[in-house]
Amino acid sequence: MDLLVVDWDYFFPTPTAGGPLGDHPELYAWPVREDAVHVEAIWLKRLRAFEDAGVTLPRCQRYEGFWNRFTIAPDATVFYADSNAWASQVFPSDLGGSGPWRSIHLYDAHHDCGYKRNDRSFEDWKIGVLSGGKRISAENWLLAHYWNGSQVFVHFPPWRESMARPTEEPLIPVSMRIDTGDAPEATFSAVFLCRSGGWVPSWCDDQFAEFLSSCPAVPVEVVGNEWTQPRDSVEKMQRLWERLRGVGSQTSS
After folding, report:
1. pLDDT tens track of the chain, all 253 residues?
2. Which residues contact 173 (CB under 8 A, 6 or more apart)?
3. Sign of CA dihedral 91, 128, 121, 111
4. pTM of the model
5. What is the rounded CA–CA span in Å between residue 172 and residue 138?
6. d(CA 190, CA 188)
7. Contact 170, 108 (CB under 8 A)
């Protein structure tokens, strides 16, 4: 069995992940955490930063027709959640199979194979997990599948300008390449799709809904996943705030 994993930030170009720098790369230099503040509330502040700089709110790009290139089994399931960490819990046994995935193909702006800023090596990470001192997260979930014997492939988005920026140092041997539009020679028994709410703005949630509904597989939300889809509209919040400020200034005058 083969697993296709797609991270929604694959379609959201950012300078920090190797996209074009543009005129305002500083607008994308934001801290990322998978908590309510950084998944939901923080996007209002970031919207204001784009508007103050006179920059049109960035949107996801070129996701239409993405699924068409892949061979997806007629009875396949598309599991979905906000974080790719949940993909660490999807195995062939969930579909009546056994053993590891024959291959996992990840389409993502990040490789999710562990980072040396957090762990010195795969062995150190594994010892940490066994001792309870480390946890499986969105940054390292593929290590769990590699540990189980799966072969891993990472496909970076075509908007990434080169493999030299940023420099990639995964904790395991993994095939990494910039996507050229070809398709893996695999029939995918399952798909996993994550929204990456800490990386992709809430004002792209309508696009995410379109992308999920266009997947030719049966959608199943991961049990235990807690999220809001779509998130509260920060555009609406900003317009209301501007209206309130306008009313306040008229009253004071």
Report:
1. 999 999 999 999 999 999 999 999 999 999 999 999 999 999 999 999 999 999 999 999 999 999 999 999 999 999 999 999 999 999 999 999 999 999 999 999 999 999 999 999 999 999 999 999 999 999 999 999 999 999 999 999 999 999 999 999 999 999 999 999 999 999 999 999 999 999 999 999 999 999 999 999 999 999 999 999 999 999 999 998 788 766 555 555 5
2. none
3. positive
4. 0.94
5. 16
6. 5
7. no
d(CA 143, CA 161): 26
DSSP track, the chain: -EEEEEEGGGGS--GGGT----S-GGGG-----SSHIIIIIHHHHHHHHHHHTT-PPP---S-TTGGGGSEEEEEEEEEEES-GGGGGG--GGGGT--SS-SEEEEE-SS--S--TTT-S-HHHHHHHHHHTS----TTTHHHHHHHHT-EEEEEE-TT---SSSSPP--SS--EEEE--S---S-EEEEEEEE--TTTS-GGGHHHHHHHHHTSSSEEEEPTT----SSPP-HHHHHHHHHHHHHHHHHHH-
Rounded to the nearest 10°, the torsion over CA 227, 231, 232, 238 is: 140
Cα torsion angle, 8, 18, 16, 47, sign: negative
Kindly state the tokens that stand for 77: 């399931």
